[in-house]
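Backbone shape codes:
===
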Amino acid sequence: MALPFRSWYFPEEASHVNSFLARPQVQKKEVEEQWFKTVIAPSAFFCTCVRARKRIRIHQSMSLTQEHLAKIDAYWRAANYLSVGQMYLRDNPLLRRPLERKDLKQVLLGHWGTAPGQNFIYVHLNEIIKRHQLEMIYLSGPGHAGQAMISCAYLEGTYSEVYPDCSQDEAGLKRLCSQFSFPGGVSSHVSPECPGSIHEGGELGYSLSHAFGAAFDNPQLIVACVIGDGEAETGPLATSWHGNKFLNPRTDGVVLPILHLNGYKIANPTLLARIKKDELKKLLEGYGWKPYFVEGHEPEAMHREMAETMEEIALEIKAIKERALRQEQPERPCWPMIVLRSPKGWTGPETVDGLPLEGTFRAHQVPIKVDKGNEDVALRQLETWMKSYRPEELFDEQGVLLPEVAALAPGGNFRMSASPHANGGLLLRELVVPDFRKYGIEVPAPGTVRAADTEVLGDFLRDIITLNQAARNFRIFGPDETLSNRLRSVFEVTNRQWMLPTEENDEFLNSEGRVVEMLSEHMCQGWLEGYLLTGRHGLFNSYEAFIHVVDSMFNQHAKWLKITAELPWRKPIASLNYLLVSHVWQQAHNGFTHQDPGFIDHVVNKKASVVRVYLPPDANCLLSVWDHCQRSKNYVNVVVASKYQALQWLPMEAAAEHCARGIGIWQWASCPMECEPDVVMACCGDAPTLETLAAVSILRHWLPELNIRVVNVVDLMKLQSASTHLHGLPDAAFDALFTVDKPIIFAFHGYPWLIHRLLYRRANHHNLHVHGYQEEGTITTYFDMKVLNELDRFHLVLAVLKRLPQLGEKGKVLAQAMRDKLEKHHRYIRERGVDMPEILEWTWD
């Protein structure tokens, strides 16, 4: 048989050597001699010659006999058979009797098109895992065809270990098939329920970024990432190809992208499958990859080509890793990747209802519809299709995969479906976290000293990096904003990881940094998710307005956590921690586009068991909150913090106590406890807290007889009822804070209606008046941003006066004074471009 040769590189030479190798009993020495005589003479073909000799050696060393290729094909047929069976069958899983309508599900759901290609890839990955004892996980990017990964996990035995009712026999096969896309069963895409998966197959575009995240700090791991050609059209995936500029071959693992070109999406052709081979090759090489092409549809030739390609790549990866270990400063290698071109719906029916199916968009979902009008014909066609995989050659009388076929899979944790890297909680080591209290700033009295909250947090994060340097299990991800967000201290002990050339004026770049930055929120989110899912810790710092870029990625991760919490075999992973800085009230200079606090609203939509939102009012509270978040598991924690110099309110111990409660009365700013308040002034967030306390100081000066209670909220979820959220306050505790009949003026960091939504069931909701962001913004001063949205101290005072008509003439005089202040502010900033001194220099008295 001819040694398959990549004819799109040097077609004439390839044709010559392939025809020569096709001769019977060609010996290695003869091959090499003939090759040198006919090809090496032109020096331009020297590299081609070296490549051919390498492939010859691989061909000889692998001993790919017909018998072994037949076993590979048998394993693939078994996976394909189970993939079809899961779409259709409720009974008769081994076709021991003629197929009847009662054997099928009433509603046929699923996706076939990409399944056979993914099964093909999986069996060949198993080949090199077993041959080289590799640690590898498999990420299924195409989205649907979840039955492919389930089939492979079942054939490896892992699925039965996790779900004993899907046993390795006929009863187990029946259960495996009947549960798929069925109420009470499993979904049609790759989901958390599938062993070996760390990538949800719902929304497309994130598989490759997840793969890089999994590879960071995992030097022994190869992450095989199958990328669907439809998925490759998404923006996040197109950006993800650049991940190879960050991967350190010495300290990180390997990402092996496998671009699966089957030509079609749901109804349209795919772009990368329709461009010329040479154009695609140049595109991938331009991204910095070395593409290996495997294409065709004839199984025997494809198995041989894929096996030899996989072996060549395995040896190349080994050489890259060994070379990096010898280098003092590892160079960025040109990592290999595979482009697999196979028909959509490969091995399925060629035609259905007189229309072509295999190799067309019609193979995307359920190929053969079984309706009342065509039941007999459809059943026979389905039966013929399933029997084409020859199940009687694959399973014994009890429905057990034959030993000689099962032996092709690796054993133990070398099985991709059993890898602990795909169940990251098994590998998770507790983060070493110093005592956050020692980083606290001195606050001799509330509102008398200033500090930049995230600068203080930066010192804490710096030492977390230092304490976990040896473990290499903590990273900071961000879109080029770590310095902007005032976390400069971390660069005292680390750098940004970077594998491209550096220039004289660059800062904080080297090949082993603990900070990873790329100007793509998608990449940062995907990297962090992959890092967490494989058992490590980290954080994502971003500007608040632009975290919306990853809204849908957050959705997918939150859904993943919700499901995995219900699976006892999935061990808890470190929480996904967002640090949102440069927030809406600190973006006056960048203007309206940078002003949006709505990510909080989006987060609160998710399950209460998953999401947490914190708005610390000062640096010491931020330290306490972050300590909790960094130690937590299986949550998404969103923390909104200030990065500019601002007044500080609580000393360290008081801050820790306040954050532990999550909400509380600030007695030092309130009327005596024994007094019933006339009004409750609540605040949540650093800017609302400042303006609330400034408003309180005005009211106390003008109306000293007024009893005011100040309630500060750090944990937003405290506002929900205890029956809705684990952190929620019981009604009695809530009423004790907010009263049942007094006006509540609530200054909130985000959109006002979120507070109404959280409190609508509370007894005193009718007295609630929320001030927050009203979608008003421009380039202006920081205080004017609050004025535009009526969150400033003057509007808050007016809100109190409006709800207390009993103040009479005194109230009217103060109201006019506040309107005068607003007018003065308006004139002042337009004349001088800065806020009034009484605003900039205000402190709590």
User: Anything to note?
Assistant: The CA atoms of residues 199 and 791 lie 42 Å apart. The domain at 438-646 is CATH 3.40.50.970 (Rossmann fold). The first helix runs from residue 11 to 21.
